[in-house]
């Protein structure tokens, strides 16, 4: 058994449809989906704002790499193209594997560049922490601490203030 937190984001085309596409591709492994947030671009300011959400997923058979493969399958289904010139540039769909827990409920720790766990930039991203906190107010990012504490860091204050809930855009009916 493994559980995973996945972050989904889109800032090109029909953004909500791309997020919905991810929920559809992940299918029965989806347990809960957060609300949708409009968020300022992180890491590369010259691009449109994103829609972001977080998915809690579970699958008895999934290995950590299976979650990465599923993330890539979601991106491919939504026509994601990589621009090698822009590491954090615009995209139809970005799906990141934030954390994975094994069958005993222990967090998987990995420093493989192909799959680093927890995701190496999750602690810096309000667009990951905020929707995850909404679903799990007591959650801890392994190796970093409680989400509520991470979100109150001064470095995240501007992004926290600039992100806005979009209750008009729901993914929950798909979960
Ligand atoms: N936890 C992880 N989740 C997703 N991809 C990861 C993870 N750890 C390592 N990777 C690797 O990162 C590579 C680049 O992924 P991607 O193109 O989605 O990066 P990015 O979205 O531009 O940046 P970021 O990973 O910071 O969101 C992937 O091919 C994947 O193998
Ligand atoms: N707000 C926001 N910014 C980003 C996002 C994202 O999903 N949301 N994904 C990125 C990919 O690395 C880069 N920047």
From TrEMBL:
EC number(s) given by UniProt: 2.7.6.3
Give a yes or no for keyword ATP-binding in this entry. Answer: yes
Biological-process GO terms, alphabetical: folic acid biosynthetic process
Q: Which GO terms describe its molecular function?
A: 2-amino-4-hydroxy-6-hydroxymethyldihydropteridine diphosphokinase activity; ATP binding; kinase activity
PROSITE patterns membership: HPPK
- Ranges for the 7,8-dihydro-6-hydroxymethylpterin-pyrophosphokinase domain? 87-98
Q: Which domain of life is it from?
A: Bacteria
Q: Which PANTHER family match?
A: 2-AMINO-4-HYDROXY-6-HYDROXYMETHYLDIHYDROPTERIDINE PYROPHOSPHOKINASE
Name of the featured protein: 2-amino-4-hydroxy-6-hydroxymethyldihydropteridine diphosphokinase
From which organism does this entry originate?
Answer: Actinoplanes cyaneus
């Amino acid at each position: 058994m493994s559980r995973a937190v996945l972050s989904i984001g889109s800032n090109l085309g029909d953004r909500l449809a791309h997020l919905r596409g991810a929920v559809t591709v992940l299918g029965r492994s989806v347990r809960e989906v957060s609300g949708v947030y409009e968020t300022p671009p992180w890491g590369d300011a010259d691009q449109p704002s994103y829609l972001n959400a977080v998915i809690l997923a579970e699958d008895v058979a999934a290995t950590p790499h299976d979650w990465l493969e599923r993330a890539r399958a979601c991106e491919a289904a939504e026509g994601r193209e990589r621009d090698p010139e822009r590491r954090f540039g615009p995209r139809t769909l970005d799906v990141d594997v934030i954390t994975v827990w094994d069958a005993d409920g222990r967090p998987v720790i990995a420093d493989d560049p192909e799959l680093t766990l927890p995701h190496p930039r999750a602690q810096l991203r309000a667009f990951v922490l905020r929707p995850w906190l909404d679903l799990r107010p007591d959650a801890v990012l392994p190796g970093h601490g409680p989400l509520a504490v991470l979100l109150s860091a001064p470095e995240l204050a501007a992004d926290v203030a600039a992100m806005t809930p979009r209750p008009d855009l729901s993914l929950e009916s798909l979960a």
